[in-house]
Every structure is written in structure tokens, then in C-alpha cells.
Amino acid sequence: MVMARMLNEVKSAPIADPGEPAATNVCWFEQTEASVPAEEDWLSPSEAAHLQRLRIPKRRCDWRLGRWTAKQAVAAYLNLSHEADSLRKVEIRPAPSGAPEVFIANRPAPVSISLSHRAGTAACLVARHGTDLGCDLEVIEPHTDAFIRDFFTTDEQSVIARAPAASQPLIVALLWSAKESALKALHEGLRLDTRDVRVLTNETDFNPLPPADAQTWRPLQVSAPNDLLFHGWWLHGDNLVRTLVASPRPALPKTM
Ligand SMILES: CC(C)(COP(=O)(O)OP(=O)(O)OC[C@H]1O[C@@H](n2cnc3c(N)ncnc32)[C@H](O)[C@@H]1OP(=O)(O)O)[C@@H](O)C(=O)NCCC(=O)NCCS
Q1: Residue 112: in which H helix or E strand, if any?
Q2: Which residues pair with 117 in a beta bridge?
Q3: Ligand 1 atom with least separation from CA of 136
Q4: Which of 32, 151, 184, 200 stands the most exposed, by the fewest C-beta atoms within 10 Å?
């Protein structure tokens, strides 16, 4: 009941309320496969050992790209050197949940990060330590009706159905990506049902679709169990949708 009331309030309220308290600074950093060095001297000894254990070429490639992107992002955020000697000391370790945690010279770093890799591109979202963060990249491509029925709430299915056919692949990618961002911010990933996180978008933001080269972040919200509400942003371009959510509420992301 409380959740239902909250959702109604959210839906009837403007998504970005300029009167809200100051938001948390978040930084978005992207790299592509082409930028990852062939050498491995930027990996710590335990990261290099982990890479050795990864047998599937795609997983190795994605993991290297994700680690490279995260280390570059942390170095930029903390103003560290980008030389291999310095990057080697920046370690991205998975927590038991799978969520990435940053250590520098074996000590917890004063940052929180989230990672995503898709189709040869990786993104890393960085904020000060203690921020709950999630980011995600999705390719804009057609999905089956069964996929939409199985993984989206009835409200989300209605948003997709109301959109012009040409916009539907982007909207499906956006809703899916926003869910994954929220599932990462909860440190749950796909252990939760994707319908337990509900994406609240402003339909006028994609009806008509913003041009892909506009490079404009647009607001979104995702509600989660226990009355949690994440604020976030989305952007599309290069056939990818980018989403992020954070708690406390993120300011417009700074692209590094
Ligand atoms: C988190 C998850 C939803 C991301 O999946 P995805 O969209 O395919 O992949 P992305 O590239 O966007 O994100 C992967 C990154 O998410 C991060 N991640 C993984 N589990 C996470 C969690 N529980 N919370 C936050 N972040 C997580 C990791 O940094 C991972 O990259 P890495 O393994 O190279 O370090 C998915 O990996 C998941 O649910 N994992 C946990 C449950 C699990 O292991 N299930 C087995 C398969 S269903």
C-alpha cells in the first residue's frame, strides 16, 4: 500500500525537481577495446592471475576492458598517474555479491564504482565512497514479445506498446538497462526478479526520440523493494543506451 501510494506520487510529480537538495557528483567514463593495451603490466599480480584462469575469450576480453576502464576512471577521478606502475596499484576486486570494489596499494580507496561492458565498449561510473551506484550499457536491438512479457512490469509493457514501432527497440533497451543499473546499485544483480525494480520515465523524453547525437542526459527513476527509489540518467548514441542510478540522488553526470 505504501509502495503503491509512493509510485502514484512519483508518477504525478515532475521527474527532475529543481527544488531538491544538492545532488551527489557522479563521473561517467568510457573506453573501447581498441584502447586496451596488449601488455598486462597495468594489472596487479592477483588480477593477472585471475585473468589466467578465465578460459572463454569473450569473457577475458570483456574483463580486461572492464578493468582497464575502471582503473582509468579511478585514476582520473582521484587525479592519479595513468602510467602502468600507478594503474597496477589500483585494484578492482569483486565483493562476495560480485559488485566491484576499489583498492589502492591494498587499502580501500575513497570511491564507489559500477561497471558495465557491452559490444566492445565499457563504462565505469565513479562517485565518492559510500554512494550506492549502478551503471549499464545496452545495445539497441529488437527483442521478442516473450522477452518483454517475461521481464517487464505491466506498466513498462504499456509504455513500450504506446511508443511508435520505430522507437520500441530503444525504449526496451532503456528500460532493461535502467533495471540492470538499479540491480547493481542494490548489489543484487539478477538474483532479484527484474519486475521487482520498476522504471519510471517521462514518456515525453522519448516521444519523439531525441536525436542520438544530442548527447543529452535525461532523468529517470527506478523504484525498488522496501520503498527504495533511485534517481538516475539515460543517454543514447552509437546504437547503445547508457543508464546510471545512484543513491543519494546523482547530479547530471560529468563525462570524463
Ligand atoms: C550484475 C549483472 C546483472 C550484470 O550483468 P550484465 O548486464 O550481463 O553485465 P554488465 O557488463 O553490464 O555488468 C557486469 C559487471 O557488473 C558488476 N557486477 C556483477 N555482479 C554485481 C552485483 N551483484 N552488484 C553490482 N555489480 C555487479 C561486475 O563489475 C561485472 O563486471 P566484471 O565481472 O567484469 O567485474 C549480472 O552479472 C548478475 O546478475 N550477476 C550476479 C548474479 C550471478 O552471478 N548470476 C549468474 C548469472 S544469472
Answers
A1: strand 111-118
A2: 122
A3: 12
A4: 32
Pocket flag, ligand 1, residue 91 (CB < 6 Å): no
Residue 20 placed within a domain: no
Domain that holds residue 53: 27-130
Give the CA dihedral 183, 184, 188, 190, nearest 10 degrees: 60
Q: What is the pTM of this model?
A: 0.91
The answer to whether position 90 is within a domain reads yes
Q: Which residues pair with 113 in a beta bridge?
A: 126
- 36 alpha carbon – ligand 1 mean position (Å): 21
Ligand 1 center from residue 189 Cα (angstroms): 6
Q: What is the pLDDT of residues 52-97, one digit of tens each?
A: 999 999 999 999 999 999 999 999 999 999 999 999 999 999 999 9
Residue whose CA lies nearest to ligand 1 atom number 41:
189
Rounded Cα distance, 224 and 180, in Å: 12
Classify residue 22: in a domain, yes or no: no
Residues 159 and 236 in one domain: yes
DSSP strand pairing (121-128 vs 198-200): unpaired
Cβ atoms of 233 and 217 closer than 8 Å: yes
Place of cell 567514463: 29
Last residue of one domain, picked from the residues 102, 130, 158: 130
CATH number at residue 120: 3.90.470.20
Instruction: Determine the distance separating the centroid of ligand 1 and the alpha carbon of 76, expressed in angstroms.
Output: 24
Residues 103 and 196 placed together within one structural domain of the fold: no
d(CA 188, ligand 1 centre) in Å: 9
Judge whether 21 lies within some domain.
Answer: no
